[in-house]
Amino acid sequence: MKRYKDTRYNLNLKKPGLPSGTLTVCFFTDMHNCCSPEEISRIETILQKNRPDLILCGGDSIIGKPGYPVAPAADFLTCLAGKWASVHENGDPAGNIYLAMGNHEYRTRIYPEVYGDMYTRYQRALQQSGHLILLQNESREFTVHGLPVCICGFSMDRRYYGRIHHETLPCSAITEAFRTDQNPGTPPSDQISILLAHNPSGMDAYLEWGADLTLCGHYHGGVARFGKHGGLISPDLCLLTGKAYGLFQKNGKSVIVSSGCGEHTIPVRIHNPREIVTVVIHVNENSQS
């Protein structure tokens, strides 16, 4: 059984007008069907130990290759969501698990001629669970322990996913993704805003957009990790990337890039264990490290 690291971050959030309190978020990403009973048990043990207020998923739960099954990831997520919902009051939005779209889910959706009904089967399984909310350029707002929260799931367009050469994500693309008649497309100033954005290549745009916390995956920790943030290679074939892992902060905003829970094609990790991330957000308080 592969080892999992239980990674914890404490963040201070100063937002006038919000009540003081703490919000504990557990985040996992990039499972890629790594859902053996032993792996599931290890993940669930970490989640139970940290007793989060919210469970979030960063995408790439499946392997987006023709003929690969979606059932391992869908069955695990459904089982986990059922257990999580059972400890909440019926209808409590904090009893749902909120997921972003990874590039593996995304390509199965936009290329049905290649992947057949993979995405349809995966999406149907999530919907039937009743407690798995896949956010595709959508947000959900609710209150947890008196703290107002907004969860946003960003689906990056394919032109920003190219290998070696790809377009740079502008902040305006995120704003347009979330803009509606009722919403200007910017993070709310009167809530704790959490952005699920699978690909950390857009980190500069995420920080400019200004969610209080952005959670990413995709890079698998760079396969082999160096220092606090460095990785050997990214999925877009960037060598010695400096955005492979860890906490990045600017102007009071935070981005966390997780090394993820699985791998595919090249199942190698060097100084780079699988992990579940727990983030404790201390709102208008001093953090306790």
Offer a few descriptive terms.
289 residues, alpha/beta, Purple Acid Phosphatase, chain A, domain 2, six-stranded mixed β-sheet, 24% helix, globular
Structure characterization notes:
- With 289 residues, this protein is α/β, with parallel strands linked by helices.
- The protein has one domain: Purple Acid Phosphatase, chain A, domain 2 (4-Layer Sandwich), CATH 3.60.21.10.
- Helices cover 24% and strands 28% of the residues.
- It contains seven helices and 15 strands.
- The strands form three sheets. A six-stranded mixed beta sheet has the order 1-15-2-3-4-5.
Question: Could you write a compact summary of the structure shown?
Answer:
The protein is of the alpha/beta class and 289 residues long.
